[in-house]
Automatic annotation (TrEMBL):
Coiled coil: none annotated. This is Putative c6 zinc finger domain-containing protein. The keyword Transmembrane helix does not apply. Signal peptide: none annotated. InterPro entries: Fun_TF, Sterol_Uptake_Regulator. Keywords: Nucleus. GO terms for molecular function: DNA-binding transcription activator activity, RNA polymerase II-specific. It comes from the Eukaryota.
């Protein structure tokens, strides 16, 4: 049997299962250690979060999306294939997140927290060319950022949170962790998100400051490039 015909007749379920194993293996052996600098944080990404994902398809989709995005970064010749896989797993995870968010409680909050952290990484790694609506001069913003809105605060609070993040980065010296800055995303208020969508000048100034400090992380974390 010719190889092409054999591929055409492959069981879709088996292909998807194989892809899942490939991505999980890559995450465990490669991607996880690139998500932090400290050994204890690398352990969280490599061991703790996957263990939590055993009982959370939502979080498992997030992990596989990160692995696919990382492979897209490492393998330019197969970039389109892995970007499609990343989009599939990200969308699947987000759908489960939206459906189950109202059930969050003391017994199941960990998968939601971990998934929010995963999505923060994915938002930063979304290639601009794959999101033409996000190019300069448009009014769109990633809908996924709305997931981080939890409190009704104002610009003063947002600036204060950014200052705290920069303080932590400064005291980390040559080894700032990505979570030090990205924690700001968790507390951005609805008003600021709406202003970002409308390309309001005040919101864009805030975003520009965030981007400057995000630039510092580019040399250390592939998903920030």
């Amino acid at each position: 049997m010719e190889e092409g015909k054999a591929h055409e007749r492959a069981d879709p379920a088996a292909v998807n299962f194989g892809r899942g194993l490939e991505l999980m293996h890559h995450y465990s052996t490669a991607s996880s250690d690139t998500l932090a600098l400290r050994a204890d944080m690398q352990h969280v990404w490599r061991v703790t979060i996957p263990e939590i994902a055993y009982q959370s398809p939502m979080l498992m989709h997030g992990i596989l999306a990160v692995a696919a995005m990382h492979k897209a970064y490492l393998l330019p010749s197969r970039r389109r294939t892995y970007l499609d896989l990343a989009a599939f797993h990200q969308n699947s995870g987000l759908e489960a997140f939206r459906v189950t968010l109202h059930d969050i409680g003391e017994q199941n909050w960990k998968p939601f927290l971990c998934f929010a952290s995963v999505i923060a990484l994915l938002v930063c790694s979304i290639p601009m060319e794959s999101k033409p609506e996000l190019q300069l001069g448009t009014t769109a913003a990633p809908d996924v950022l709305q997931l981080f809105v939890e409190k009704q605060e104002d610009y003063r609070m947002a600036v204060s949170e950014l200052q705290n993040a920069v303080y932590l980065m400064a005291h980390a010296g040559a080894h700032p962790e990505v979570g030090m800055l990205f924690s700001v995303l968790y507390v951005l208020p609805d008003a600021i998100m709406a202003d970002l969508e409308a390309t309001d000048l005040y919101a864009l100034v805030l975003l520009s400051y965030f981007s400057v400090f995000s630039k510092v992380l580019e040399t250390r974390f592939w998903f920030s490039k």
